[in-house]
């Protein structure tokens, strides 16, 4: 037996051992023709030239085939459908329905007014609750989560800096008698860099200020919230804004390196923060390209985490990611066709080995998704999992000449992007100087030109045009103005009844932490939320202390 | 259509007007997604128009003031997350400032029901996702020409 054969056999045994700890030996799967479907297919030891370097076994370096030994065969991805509507009471009603249906993970999308750092009495009521839930206080969060214990439910918050929603969640946990260490979930939208370069939904903190707020947040989570993922590194915003899939992956990995460097500079050790890094990506309809993107990203991160960032714990090398099917690919023409597009994107994400998914509603190109369309999006995932059996085999396309070659080529492209960013001084500097924004803008123009020229065909838009649209579209759903008005009354009442002195003291503590870097800013946000401060008040104070930024605009 | 044809069309309009047509591309309200507004700004600029491009989240009053200061011929509002609901207020503010001759165009995600509402409020055109560069550039050129001829 050659050395290479021995290495292969040893790795295979290690994989089998680990797999057996995750999946019961009774889990036997047989297809319709009576053939047993194994969890993993590999070359034989004799034909495994380069296999160990480029692919390896799932859960082992270089992790191309997956970050866990059993992947979807052992644990399917979480369905994290974004939910956010109207006021906390409506959210609670929708959420209770989902819990009844078996959901164990919630997502929470705040109203755009919250994204912008405002309370509901600061913006035009016409816009309130149309895209997400109006959550401004600990009472609002308690109302959202009424009837559900934070000890049992993982919450995924779309909660940009300075993380007021998480502060409200922690305050709610205390009210429920749940220790904050038991609260689990993820701070989505915590990647301020992606907001600076792409979707501009952040809270107007300056780039430099954001850097401190995020690092303080990671430190706080590390000390107090063992089950919380404080950072979700976003490539999705970049790709939606026009970056190619390879660029988006390259930017996200460069951002992760930046955040890791920032944590290290504050005295943390790699294995303290890296296991809590998660990623968030777009899944476009460019099917094989997306699969190769995820496989390549996994391989690069596994290598970087160990070699560059100094991880020793294998958990630090795991490229855990959530992905969302791409809204940019959906068309207004014949909107029901979008169901097919979303299904195709979702399959690419599944074959790419995601840990969590949001599939878009077919009507999001027309309006904020209706409940009917949102249900179809969930059913799409269920069909792929249960009827199409996409979870039986780990990395089912691994070993395909095309996929393996494409994975290598995507890796090269991704690394090229990362080198461009590194040459510009790293992600922080590249964004500050507008380098990344220009790259994204150029790619957006290139793609649009391909569509306009017909090189990229889009069914119903520039090809196979059918003037007679027969697509059914569900009626528009907007929050009842009466509900918004009641919420405004409740908000005013909350402010009238709280202790103004306690709020002022807590807000002053935020200012003090702004000046004194030995204090943790996020800890002060948590205390302020508990004292009854509103989202708008906390954001306003943060802007004052850490600076007021505007995105860099280059058109 | 070739960009050079668009440049010619905009050039002819510029001769009629005695200056290049000027368009403000902006976003009002709360949303920050700007892929569409950036693309459209680039298309119009490539076709030879003068483009005033703003950051997102503008307030209605600021848009009116800037449009007045810059003396723009058209305002393009990009909306992807219900911010178009504020456009009737923009139309009112423009009327108050006696700027009814400014062409207002909305682009982005606008439900059919709301298109009717926007047209009634005086919006000249609503461009939906999937509209090509040609349709956008030619459409805006034509709308500005019509206003100029009308005067």
Strand content of chain B: 15-25%
Number of strands of chain B: 5
Report helical residue fraction of chain A: 40-55%
Oligomeric composition of the shown chains: heterodimer
Name of the CATH class of chain B? Alpha Beta
Largest sheet of chain B: 5 strands, parallel
How many distinct beta strands of chain A?
Answer: 11
- Give the radius of gyration of chain A: 24 Å
Q: Mind summarizing the main beta sheet of chain A?
A: 5 strands, parallel
Going by helix content, strand content and strand pairing, the class of chain A is alpha/beta
Rg of chain B, nearest Å: 14 Å
CATH topology of chain B: Rossmann fold
Shape of chain A: globular
Sequence of strands across the biggest β-sheet of chain A: 3-11-10-9-8
Strand order of the largest sheet of chain B: 2-1-3-4-5
How many H/I helical runs of chain B?
A: 6
Biggest interface reads: A-B, 43 and 36 residues
CATH architecture classification of chain B:
3-Layer(aba) Sandwich
How does this structure look, described?
The complex is a heterodimer of chains A (555) and B (151). By secondary structure, chain A is α/β, with parallel strands linked by helices. Chain A has a domain at 481-546. Chain A has helices at residues 3-22, 51-54, 71-74, 88-100, 112-115, 138-144, 164-176, 192-199, 207-224, 236-241, 245-265, 270-273, 287-308, 337-351, 371-387, 401-423, 427-432, 435-453, 481-497, 500-515, 521-530, 535-546; strands spanning 29-30, 36-37, 78-79, 105-108, 154-158, 185-188, 228-229, 231-234, 277-283, 321-325, 356-358. In chain A, the strands form three sheets. A five-stranded parallel sheet of chain A has the order 3-11-10-9-8. In chain A, strands 4-5-6-7 form a four-stranded parallel sheet, covered by helices on one side. Chain B has 151 residues and is an alpha/beta fold. Chain B has a single domain (3-146), classed as Rossmann fold, CATH 3.40.50. Chain B is built from six helices and five strands; from the N terminus they run H-E-H-E-H-E-H-E-H-E-H. Chain B has helices spanning 3-17, 35-46, 60-70, 87-96, 112-120, 133-150, and strands at residues 22-26, 50-53, 74-79, 103-108, 125-127. A five-stranded parallel sheet of chain B has the order 2-1-3-4-5, sandwiched between helices. In chain B, strand 3, helix 4 and strand 4 form a beta-alpha-beta unit. In chain B, helix 1 runs parallel beside helix 6 (133-150) and helix 3 (60-70) packs across helix 4 (87-96). Chain B starts with a helix and ends with a helix. The chains are: A alpha/beta (555), B alpha/beta (151). The interface between A and B is large, with 43 and 36 residues.
């Amino acid at each position: 037996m050659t050395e290479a054969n021995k290495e292969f056999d040893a790795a295979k045994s290690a994989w089998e051992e680990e797999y057996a700890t995750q999946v019961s030996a009774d889990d036997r799967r047989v297809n319709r023709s009576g053939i047993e479907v194994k969890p993993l297919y590999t070359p034989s030891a004799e034909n495994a030239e380069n296999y160990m370097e480029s692919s390896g076994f799932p859960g082992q370096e270089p992790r191309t085939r997956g970050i866990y030994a059993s992947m979807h065969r052992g644990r399917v991805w979480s369905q994290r459908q974004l939910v956010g509507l109207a006021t906390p009471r409506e959210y609670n009603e929708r959420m209770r329905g989902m819990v009844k249906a078996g959901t164990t993970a919630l997502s929470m999308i705040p109203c755009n007014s919250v994204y912008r750092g405002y309370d509901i009495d600061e913006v035009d009521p016409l816009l309130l609750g149309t895209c997400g839930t109006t959550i401004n206080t600990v009472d609002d969060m308690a109302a959202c989560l009424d009837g559900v214990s934070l000890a049992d439910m993982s919450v995924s918050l779309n909660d940009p800096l300075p993380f007021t929603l998480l502060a409200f969640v922690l305050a709610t946990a205390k009210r429920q008698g749940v220790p904050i260490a038991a609260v689990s979930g993820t701070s989505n939208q915590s990647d301020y860099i992606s907001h600076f370069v792409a979707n501009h939904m952040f809270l107007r903190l300056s780039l430099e200020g954001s850097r401190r707020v995020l690092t303080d947040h990671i430190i706080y989570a590390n000390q107090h919230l063992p089950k919380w993922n404080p950072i979700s590194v976003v490539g999705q915003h970049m790709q939606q804004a026009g970056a190619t899939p390879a660029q988006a992956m390259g930017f996200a990995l460069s951002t992760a390196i930046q955040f890791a460097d920032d944590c290290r500079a504050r005295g943390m050790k790699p294995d303290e923060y890296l296991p809590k890094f998660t990623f968030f990506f777009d899944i476009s309809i460019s099917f094989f390209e997306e699969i190769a993107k995820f496989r390549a990203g996994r391989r690069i991160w596994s290598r970087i985490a160990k070699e560059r960032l100094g991880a020793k714990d294998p958990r630090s090398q795991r490229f855990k990611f959530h992905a969302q099917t791409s809204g940019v690919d959906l068309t207004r023409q014949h909107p029901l066709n979008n169901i097919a597009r979303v299904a195709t994107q979702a399959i690419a994400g599944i074959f790419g080995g995601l840990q969590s998914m949001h599939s878009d509603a077919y009507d999001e190109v027309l309006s904020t998704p209706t409940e009917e369309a949102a249900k179809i999006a969930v059913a799409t995932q269920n069909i792929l999992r249960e009827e199409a059996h996409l979870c039986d085999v780990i990395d089912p396309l691994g070993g395909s000449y095309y996929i393996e070659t494409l994975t290598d080529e995507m890796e090269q492209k991704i690394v090229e992007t990362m080198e461009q960013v590194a040459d510009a001084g790293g992600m922080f500097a590249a964004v500050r100087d507008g380098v990344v924004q220009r790259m994204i803008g150029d790619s957006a123009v290139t793609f649009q030109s391909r569509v306009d020229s017909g090189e990229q065909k889009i069914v119903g838009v520039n090809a196979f045009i059918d003037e007679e649209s027969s697509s059914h579209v569900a009626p528009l759903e907007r929050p009842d103005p009466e509900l918004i008005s009641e919420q405004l009354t409740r908000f005013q009442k909350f402010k009238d009844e709280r202790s103004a002195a306690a709020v002022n003291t807590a807000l002053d503590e935020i200012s003090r932490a702004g000046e004194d870097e030995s204090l943790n800013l996020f800890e002060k946000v948590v205390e302020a939320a508990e004292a009854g401060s509103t989202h708008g008040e906390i954001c306003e104070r943060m802007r004052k202390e850490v600076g007021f930024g505007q995105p860099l605009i280059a058109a | 259509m070739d960009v050079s044809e668009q440049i010619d069309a905009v050039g002819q309009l510029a001769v009629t007007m005695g200056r290049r047509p000027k368009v403000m591309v902006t976003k009002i309200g709360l949303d920050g997604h700007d892929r569409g507004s950036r693309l459209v700004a680039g298309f119009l600029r490539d076709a030879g128009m003068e483009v005033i491009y703003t950051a997102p989240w503008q307030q209605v009053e600021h848009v009116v003031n800037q449009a007045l200061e810059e003396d723009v011929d058209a305002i393009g509002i990009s909306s992807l997350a219900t911010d178009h609901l504020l456009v009737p207020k923009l139309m009112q503010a423009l009327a108050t400032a006696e700027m009814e001759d400014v062409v207002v165009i909305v682009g982005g995600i606008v439900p059919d029901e709301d298109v009717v509402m926007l047209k009634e409020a005086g919006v000249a055109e609503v461009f939906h996702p999937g509209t090509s560069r040609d349709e956008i550039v030619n459409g805006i050129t034509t709308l500005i020409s019509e206003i100029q001829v009308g005067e």
